[in-house]
């Protein structure tokens, strides 16, 4: 290096890092560009010290790609603000950590997503938060369970695996009478099939990994609210935890949103046809699908929901566990794997499930209906029922 030497123009190696900027003002593409950023430059130190409200400051707090996704999700749910988290589970823990403090009490629906229950029983318990599980169909009966130190009522409707539809308006009315906010894991409805805010919920959590992403290739979650004070608590906790989402994945979710409604309608129709076919089979003792009468809370679904999605469960109450395993493993179009909401049909069965009863839990099979032709899926289920009897 030559001290004091000045090059005009800068070296190629410097120009690679400091290119001339080109802003494509008339490039009206339909897709939202993917803006990757950790550092975001300020014009001067004055701008760094006095950012205007909403100014981009650092990648962790948002990029134009993430902000666009937040805005579109807020629009779908009719929320005032949305925060993004790296997974659905992270959105759940963010909400809990934003609202609960040592000595607080949490009411948690008993058919909650397993890792949510583990969060309550593990980390939250260690932090001094006490949790009481309640029956998902409790409705207005939740009132006597609310204590002076209850700080959050958690709903999930339909419940994970056992699919109970909750009377969210009745639960919210009881909670609000005691000034307790209500959060709902609203992932099944994807913000389209169930209006969480009209039902009285204060926070709507989405596992965007499911229907919004829609292709089983990303993880993301969101928390939406209309309440400014709750929004502030969420942002503060989001900041403290350093929760960041990749703009690349935001761009995939933005793309998924464009087909969300048509995909949801398709899987909704297919799943209902398949559920009805299963309900007519003698091997099946119950089909837990919100649109069918076997499903606890079916009447509430008729009252509060505009449709059903692609996830439901079937109970083979007269089978052995071995036959359930043989059936699941004989399926060819249904992959064995976690999650749901993508294009592929999936199946799960659970050895130690204690709902709806410890006897029936291991005989329950959960199906995620994907975008395949429903006739092929029915043929696959039929051949697996036959195979499993051998
Ligand atoms: C109801 C429900 N909520 C939340 C989640 C968590 O989402 P993620 O997989 O993005 O963490 C899941 C995942 O299976 C789920 O089924």
Looking at this protein, list some descriptive labels.
about 400 residues, 7-stranded mixed sheet, about 15% strand
Annotate the secondary structure layout.
Elements: H1 12-17, H2 45-49, H3 64-77, E1 81-85, H4 88-99, E2 105-109, H5 114-126, E3 130-134, E4 150-156, H6 168-177, E5 182-185, E6 203-207, E7 221-225, H7 228-241, H8 247-279, E8 286-288, H9 298-304, E9 311-315, H10 321-330, E10 335-336, E11 346-349, E12 364-368, H11 374-388
Parallel strand pairs: 2-3, 2-4, 4-5, 5-6, 10-11
Antiparallel strand pairs: 1-7, 6-7, 8-9, 9-12, 11-12
Helix pairs in contact: 3-8, 4-5, 4-7, 8-11, 10-11
Residues 87-89, 113, 156, 160, 185, 187, 207, 209, 219, 221, 339 line the site of pyridoxal-5'-phosphate (PLP).
Could you explain how this protein is built, in words?
- It is a single chain.
- By secondary structure, the chain is α/β, with parallel strands linked by helices.
- Helix content is 36%, strand content 14%.
- It is built from eleven helices and twelve strands.
- It has helices at residues 12-17, 45-49, 64-77, 88-99, 114-126, 168-177, 228-241, 247-279, 298-304, 321-330, 374-388, and strands spanning 81-85, 105-109, 130-134, 150-156, 182-185, 203-207, 221-225, 286-288, 311-315, 335-336, 346-349, 364-368.
- The strands form two sheets. It has a seven-stranded mixed sheet with strand order 1-7-6-5-4-2-3, sandwiched between helices. A five-stranded mixed sheet has the order 8-9-12-11-10, covered by helices on one side.
- Helix 4 runs parallel beside helix 5 and helix 8 packs across helix 11.
- Bound molecules: pyridoxal-5'-phosphate.
- Residues 87-89, 113, 156, 160, 185, 187, 207, 209, 219, 221, 339 line the site of pyridoxal-5'-phosphate (PLP).
